[in-house]
Design goal:
The complex is a heterodimer of chains A (73) and B (541). Chain A has one domain: ACP-like (Non-ribosomal Peptide Synthetase Peptidyl Carrier Protein, Chain A, Orthogonal Bundle). Helix content of chain A is 59%, strand content 0%. Chain A contains 4 helices and no strands. In chain A, helix 1 crosses helix 2. The mean pLDDT of chain A is 87. The two termini of chain B are 40 Å apart. Classes of the chains: A mainly alpha (73), B alpha/beta (541).
Chain lengths: 73, 541
């Protein structure tokens, strides 16, 4: 699951070689703004066939948070 | 089209309170569509008649349960039920407390406590908050889950007489408190801005006189707890009998543009910028960016000789916004001129406005046919502006007085006193008025970080939290672009592991903060910060 998520992130960031670890912050470590996060989450929803509520999205701080949400859903 | 002063629109809206506004809409626009929204993926509509009936039904529920002259808090993503709660609370002689849905749970509970909220209305996503609220906020006696409770509450909607005394003759007066809107204070804790019925309605009426908004199609994108969304985005639209489509979240913006096809909307710079970038990214991905640039050159040349073909030439660009979008009101933060000019080239006017929650919020705006680039427009006729303590170039602090200026901060007489100079509200923003009365914003006096999503962040609030770390001796939080940075001076002597600890501690702190308050980067200093004569750290200018 982490690998699939890493692929989505790398594609979105346009950097296939970027290191992505679970403790990285979704916004500041990837230099994303809140709208980027919304777009990214939309791509994750599509890829994993899940729906992530705005409230759940706002609580996600790190790659690990997103991963755990996907694992629990 | 000539860019010149033109008469204000005639506005005959004889209402003094928000419940009178609902009665007014019923007499004028009964069968028109008031709201369009998504419900479990399906698009639904509500006429003005149904909307008022639903609002009355919910108001009746509040009153029957003894809620009158109380504070009713609401939280959730934008929805028809959120909007109903706003009007049912204010229409039943209660006060609405809209809570920012990006706040962490602890902050929501803090606002519920500090506002003394007696009822808490929340969307289904916030159902998990019901338990902690019940347990921790003793003042809350009624909880309504919009998803599970609201449909049943509205089952008998429409059966209440249109003349029911408690709604139409509720005894509400224009100067009564209608809303308490929490906003980032400059000293940390959020402050409750108290807005009366008159404040909100006078600001909205003024907006109707200045903007062409009657009987149109609009879409509300910004979160409704934001006064920029609720006053011009909804209250003013209802005055004009327009149809308000409710965009339920940032994820749905593109889809909702296509489905709702609004003629105008309100945005913050972050959204304007993202939309503009998306246009060019799409063009580039289709190898049409060079062609698009050429077309803009041709179109601009034609415009110079009075031929406007923009809506035909850029039909495919405009289609991404539903095809009907003509103008966007942009507020909340400064927007780069390139976006204004860029959208104008495609045939969409970005009209910059200036407001602040304490002024309900509108103070000035660029009108549809009278605007000045770089400015935030002309002053609304509900308020006056004084440029206080102006320097030799005419720049000074923007003071505002008028019927849109708040009653004060809730339970905070000291902050209220500090915010006023006599009758004038001190905005903390710096600016000047040009010879034609256009207002220009040049900076801020107060230490407030303003992000492009319109969010205000108090650096002191974050500094206070960082200083709680035992090895931090001094800290300065400031803005760099659209990010928040913390510069630190650490205790080298007693904490040899300080630099290893800081990263984890800032991550832990970020976890407690809403995303927009994230500390994106830390910088460690080798020396103390330079100080003012009163020994305060000199802030970045």
């Amino acid at each position: 699951m982490l690998e699939k998520l890493q692929l989505i992130l790398r594609e979105y960031l346009g950097d296939p070689s970027i290191t992505i670890s679970e403790d990285m912050l979704l916004l500041s470590d990837f230099d994303l703004d809140s709208l980027d996060l919304v777009t990214l989450v939309g791509k994750v929803e599509e890829a994993f066939s899940v729906e992530i509520s705005d409230r759940a999205m706002m609580k996600m701080k790190t790659v690990g948070d997103l991963l755990r949400y996907l694992q629990d859903t | 089209m000539k860019n010149a002063p033109y008469p204000l629109n005639t506005v005959d809206i004889p209402v003094k309170t928000l419940n009178e506004l609902l009665a007014f809409t019923l007499t004028r626009f009964q069968n028109r569509t008031a709201f369009r929204y998504r419900d479990q993926g399906e698009i639904k509509t509500a006429t003005y008649a149904r909307f008022v009936a639903d609002a009355k039904q919910l108001a009746a529920h509040f009153l029957e349960n003894g809620f009158h002259n109380t504070n009713i808090a609401v939280i959730g993503e934008n929805s028809y039920f959120w909007m109903l709660t706003y009007f049912a609370a204010t229409g039943s002689g209660n006060v609405i407390v809209p809570i920012d849905n990006q706040l962490p749970d602890d902050d929501v509970i803090h606002i519920l406590k500090s506002s003394g909220a007696c009822a808490f209305v929340f969307s289904g996503d916030y159902a998990d908050l019901a338990g902690p609220v019940k347990e921790q906020v003793k003042s809350v006696k009624l909880l309504i889950n919009m998803k599970t409770d609201m449909p049943a509450l509205l089952e008998n909607s429409g059966k209440i007489s249109a003349n029911d005394a408690y709604f139409i003759e509720s005894g509400i007066k224009e100067n009564d408190l209608a809303a308490i809107v929490y906003t980032s204070g400059t000293t940390g804790a959020p402050k409750g801005v108290m807005l009366s019925h008159k404040n909100i309605l006078e600001d909205a009426k003024s907006g109707c006189r200045f903007m062409d908004i009657a009987l149109h199609e609009t879409m509300v994108i910004l979160p409704m707890h934001h006064t920029l969304s609720s006053t011009p985005g909804v209250v003013a639209q209802l005055m004009g009998g327009s149809t308000v489509s409710i965009c339920s979240g940032a994820k749905n913006i593109s889809k909702d543009f296509l489905d709702f096809k609004p003629e105008y909307t309100i945005m913050v710079p972050l959204i304007v910028e993202a939309m503009y970038k998306k246009i060019w990214e799409t063009a580039k991905s289709q190898n049409k960016d060079k062609l698009l640039k050429k077309m803009i050159k041709i179109s601009n040349a034609l415009l110079n000789i009075g031929i406007d073909l923009r809506r035909k030439l850029f039909k495919s660009v405009l289609a991404a916004f539903g095809g009907n979008l003509q103008w966007v009101l942009s507020g909340g933060a400064a927007l780069g001129e390139e976006y204004v000019l860029g959208f104008r080239a495609f045939g969409i006017d970005i009209l910059q406005a200036y407001g602040i929650s304490e002024c309900s919020p509108g103070v000035s705006l660029n009108r549809n046919r009278y605007k000045r680039d770089g400015s935030v427009g002309v002053l609304l006729d509900c308020n006056k502006v004084l440029i206080a303590n102006a320097d030799e170039t005419g720049i000074g602090e923007i003071y505002v007085k008028g019927s849109n200026v708040m009653l004060g901060y809730y339970n905070d007489p000291k902050a209220t006193e500090d915010a006023f100079d006599g009758e004038w509200f001190k905005t903390g923003d710096l600016g000047y008025l040009d010879e034609d009365g256009f207002l220009f914003i040049t900076g801020r006096m107060k230490n407030l970080i303003i992000l492009s999503n319109g969010k205000n962040v108090s650096p002191e609030e974050l500094e206070y939290k960082i200083l709680a770390l035992p090895y931090v001796l001094e800290v300065l939080v400031y803005q760099e672009g659209d990010r928040i940075l913390a510069e630190l001076f650490l205790d080298e002597e007693n904490f040899p592991d300080r630099e290893q600890r800081i990263e984890a501690d800032i991550l832990a702190l970020n976890r407690t903060l809403p995303q927009y308050k994230y500390i994106a980067k830390t910088i460690i200093r080798d020396t103390e910060f330079p100080k003012t004569t009163s020994k305060k750290i000199k802030r970045k200018s």
